[in-house]
UniProtKB/TrEMBL annotation:
PANTHER family: MALTODEXTRIN IMPORT ATP-BINDING PROTEIN MSMX, TREHALOSE IMPORT ATP-BINDING PROTEIN SUGC. The keyword Transport applies. PROSITE patterns: ABC_TRANSPORTER_1 (PS00211), ABC_TRANSPORTER_2 (PS50893). It comes from the Bacteria. GO terms for molecular function: ATP binding. This is Iron(III) transport system ATP-binding protein. It comes from Microbacterium amylolyticum. InterPro entries: AAA+_ATPase (IPR003593), ABC_transporter-like_ATP-bd (IPR003439), ABC_transporter-like_CS (IPR017871), ABC_transpr_MalK/UgpC-like (IPR047641), Mo/tungstate-bd_C_term_dom (IPR008995), P-loop_NTPase (IPR027417).
Amino acid sequence: MSAIRLEQVAKTYQGSDTRSVDRLDLTVEEGDFLCLLGPSGCGKSTTLRLIAGLERPTEGRIDIGGASVDDVPRGIHVAAERRGLGFVFQSYALWPHLTVRENVEFGLTMQKIRSRERRVRVDHALETLAIAPYADRYPGDLSGGQQQRVAIARTLAARPAVMLLDEPLSNLDARLRLEMRAEFQRIHRETGTTMVFVTHDQWEAMTLATRIVVMNEGRVQQIGSPLDVYSQPANRFVAEFMGSPPLNVVERSGVGRAAQALAEWRGADGAVTAGLRPEAVQFTDLPSAGAFSVPVTIEALLPTGGSWIVEASDGARRIFGTSTTIPNVREGDRTNAWAPARDVLLFAEDGSRLTESLVAA
């Protein structure tokens, strides 16, 4: 049985003619770690709030654990507190006057769980999140990462079938975000809890999710594994959204040597746009046979610590490449930027990605 199912779910706010969520169909399986990913305003947080019951859909149906919690045609709406879900907010939402233990125990007390059971659950949650030594401290005495662990422990102690997480790492610095990503992976692996995680950070989604749902303007653009979404994007939006440095985009109708090269490249028949991942771009005088190749001038070499970014120009636009070894080019060099045909993403006029069979046709 699926943990969550959304059928033709839509949300339109009063006074607006635009759907924040536009007839969304989505199934979250038991044990999934599903990430809703997209830019600000794409509808991902609204979708999470609809699942939680904090918002009511204007169309469609939502089932949790096989039971209907929202069904607009039938007038069904189950309140958030009766859905049995755990929610971790972007803000930690901790009681400042309660200790760590008391914060974790608070929800169990409201549920009238017996004291012995509360103690067992709280102790287990504190140990799982490695915050047992801080049980008697107050939130103000903790770091941001520790406070986030308390918020997660509070949710875990309630033993929800599903955890909903709304950008829970956005307030942390880079190192703490990295630590907490590993923490979420461990929690998911050890507890098997179904998780739905909202983020605008592609690397959070790539490193955490079993499946990613890429959204834009209230609609799903693609659902798939992290590898599929990155390497086999459904359309140009997904391809450009995923990746850093971003995708190199070449328009057949554009200007510069890259546009001319695309217009002349036999591998691009039927495509109006090509996309090159920076890690697929190489800079040498002699491209491999059949590759998409553009004459460029090297503009800059940018070391990032463990890798280098190569910035080149075709006379009209910048083309970026990345390398994990020291690049064999220097600023001012004239060479070719190229990628093997298998690594070139091709798009039709409507933005959909062309498969090899469609290109060949």
